[in-house]
Amino acid sequence: MAPKRKDRPKRIFRVLATRERLLRTFFPRLRWHFASLCIAFLASCGGGSGGSGSVDTPRAPEPTPEAITPDVGWKVQYYRSGDDLVTPLDGTNITAIFGSDGRLSGSTGCNNYFATYDTTNQSIHIDKIALTKMACSNKTGIMKQEATYVENLNSAAKATMVDNGLILKNSGDETLVSFILALSVSKTECSNFGWGLACTYDHNGVAREYILYVPQSYDGDKAVPLLFNFHGYSSNAEGHHRGRADFRDLAEKENFILVVPQGSLFEGVTHWNVGANKTRQSTADDIGFTKALIEKITSEYKIDSERVYSTGMSNGGYMSYHLACLLSEKIAAIASVTGSMTPTTFDSCSPVHPTSILQIHGTADSSVPYEGANWTLPIDEVLKYWSTYNGCDSLPSVSSLPDQNSDGLVSNVISYSNCRGQVNVQLYKMKGMGHQWPEIEIGSDISAVQVIWSFLSKYTTSMN
């Protein structure tokens, strides 16, 4: 809606009246005045074209001395950009949740952000702002909007609760950001791109992101499998989803739904909390986040709950093992590419059903050494654990892969069979391969995407 438009006043006031009734219903302790809401609404609907427009500074209601209301969702009404106060770009929402634990999280309209904050009376200090690394749309100005909003948070010195929201100001008493209460910030918000739905989801007060790809072949009549695909350490969901680990064509052909979660930030780097050396102090609840996504997606789509699978590269492979151990009741089978198990995962592993395991690993991997290290189990030890747990034959069969890239190096498939519940434990031991996702088109002997789905799709959680 362009700023300063006045052509639909009757409709505006009907909307505001409805909003006031909702606010009184859901937030009876807050003081909501219809006139204040009208001022806030009209100030955010000024003129301009092609994105955010400047607004006239509204007459601020008398401030109240109360602290910031915690654990509720706020949406930016306008923010400072240079000497102007501007509204967010059309089609974007800038949000914030000031947690009672001193954590601040929300969306810049592009990436999610996380920070710490403290308040004393009406003073506020926001620190350690970190951003996720989602590639955003090419909308003109969206990255400038993000940078300006983050700069405003860094400069905030005063926080004032007013009748229609929350205002952050700098030490010179200039308004930096004006928030209004957003009834739906804690709900899932998704943007539809050609490559999938990019969604934000509030998990225990923390804004988390994921990509959901629903194939055109899905019609809702038949229950379909669900595949999780986890990116690696310091990577991101979109790059993983649209890169070599792209399962979209297979999802269309085989009719399964694909979810690609985004790791949260730890010390400024995206990660999955599996107890690895670089993230040992992380408190991210990635098991709970995954479980919540399974339950959410299952409630919205017709999912075969016995055919939920996980795969991932590197840290994403570790996460898949973590799920097989600690969310076993939900996960039918997993496939790890260049990942392994940390001692933390190994020591806490407690699967509840026979579980098929596929590992794809290069013998020249220096990032996650095949032979292991003090922070990661050797691949052979990982295979031994799962083959023993599944009651497989102690001696595996070994077969050679065709030398597709004609490099003279022979890779092997090592399979443990005759397991409980007809599951399988299998290793693709890639001779001379480093830390990479193998695909024939880039010179590998296999296409990992094809191998993974062919393996996983055969198994269910009820194979006892």
Automatic annotation (TrEMBL):
Single biological process term from Gene Ontology: xylan catabolic process
GO molecular function, one term: feruloyl esterase activity
Subcellular location: Secreted
Pfam families: Abhydrolase_2, META
Keyword rRNA-binding among record annotations: no
SUPFAM superfamilies: alpha/beta-Hydrolases (SSF53474)
InterPro entries per UniProt: AB_hydrolase_fold, DUF306_Meta_HslJ, FaeB/C/D, HslJ-like_sf, PLipase/COase/thioEstase
Keyword Secreted in record: yes
Keywords annotated in UniProt: Carbohydrate metabolism, Hydrolase, Polysaccharide degradation, Secreted, Signal, Xylan degradation
Main location: secreted
Domain Phospholipase/carboxylesterase/thioesterase intervals: 279-371
Domain DUF306: 95-179
Cellular component aspect of the GO annotation: extracellular region
Record protein name field: Uncharacterized protein
Species whose genome carries this gene: marine metagenome
